[in-house]
């Protein structure tokens, strides 16, 4: 019972850290890109990952966690895949309208459910599917404003969906099958993610912005926001691996849409972004979907725990000896006393 309570507290802590850090970095990056004119998102992400690796390396040298060797081929392919998925998401945003990009992000949940059902044989109840539908509907109402289609953007969005889903499923699978923690996996894979984005980032950003990141004039305030963004990114990257490892890729995507709703709310209250009745209705519907998803997951988890407990009790009962040596001895003594008393009665 104590271990289960500790696990639940760990999950709640991971979810809170993920939400807080993600909302913080979105606000920071929005100020950096929109207000200060630094548009190089992919290159910035490579810096995030390099700072994350350096921070984890320092933590490992100070014995905050123990490094665990993982097959080099596995961790290399995993890191490169995650790096490529980030690049595709940024390209999808650049070549599509904001509305179509939001559709791309929404499509990640049903595609993840499909992949886990087909390849991992994972079962999702009708209640879970319904709550996810309500969530996706609400986020769609709140965030999708226009849908402009083009061939290149559609292909990039499809590639972004596939690579993101596979990467997140592998994050969960590797941690569980190889028995590594989120910190150990992130420490091993971050250099490869950073390397692929460090090489491709400037090219991707130049194709999207028509500007060269190396020719940009860095003012002190821009450098300060870049450093702040990188520091927050350490928490974002760590919490991402932590949440996916402790829960599931689908739960992480649900959490991501909660962040979207919070960012919309913060944008309205802090940055005075335009806000309509449609945004309010969509956020309320999305919150209803998240509430349903959390409730159904909690109920199914309790049901599974009670089933496992009853099965273990039945197993223990089946394996427990019906008669041990002491009980046999006690019964033999009772039989002997009964025989003796019967002989005495005849006498």
From TrEMBL:
Residues 21-294 form the Sugar phosphate transporter domain. GO terms for cellular component: membrane. Keywords: Membrane, Transmembrane, Transmembrane helix. It holds the Pfam family TPT. It is found in: Membrane. It is a multi-pass membrane protein. The keyword Disulfide bond does not apply. It comes from the Eukaryota. Residues 303-347 are annotated as: Disordered. Residues 331-347 have a biased composition (Basic and acidic residues). The chain crosses the membrane at residues 38-58, 70-93, 132-149, 155-173, 216-238, 280-296. The keyword Membrane applies. This is Sugar phosphate transporter domain-containing protein. Its main location: membrane.
